[in-house]
């Protein structure tokens, strides 16, 4: 299955993927900018909080890179943005789990606190949801390219039925020759 060919370029789902990636990327860039403005040392674990979360320069750099990647996904759009959103969302959730185990330990080099862990879970789920929108559901509409991919026989029957109906409509519109 080639993902880039599965979703038409002008499909309305591409807009959801783009806006989701763009908004989440901007949020991460804002957090990173505030972290840089606080000017902590790269791995300092005793800094101030930014937006209720602890941060350091290393976390700000990571937030900048991920934010820029999401913005690039928003610019590219389509299935690339969808796959990127699902991947980044999954990585955020994994990061939340990983940082639960290093809270209050020397291995916590990104200075994560519990609010950072909760943010990782929430942001990861939001980003992944934007990526999975219209792709993962039990009730996708029949014009959805992902539904058609999963149900090729029924999609072919519906396409043939629609083609027949459109041909019949065209024949009705054609002027009939005068029999006299």
Fill in the keyword field for this structure:
single chain; 180 residues; mainly alpha; two-stranded antiparallel ribbon; 2 strands
SSE arrangement:
Elements: H1 3-6, H2 13-38, E1 49-50, E2 53-54, H3 57-76, H4 78-102, H5 114-132, H6 145-150, H7 152-173
Antiparallel strand pairs: 1-2
Write up what this structure looks like.
The protein is an all-alpha fold and 180 residues long. Helices cover 68% and strands 2% of the residues. It has 7 helices and 2 strands, in the order ααββααααα. It has helices spanning 3-6, 13-38, 57-76, 78-102, 114-132, 145-150, 152-173, and strands spanning 49-50, 53-54. The chain has a two-stranded antiparallel sheet. β1 (49-50) and β2 form a beta hairpin. α2 packs antiparallel against α5, α3 packs antiparallel against α4 and α4 runs antiparallel to α5. The radius of gyration is 24 Å and the shape is elongated. The termini are far apart.
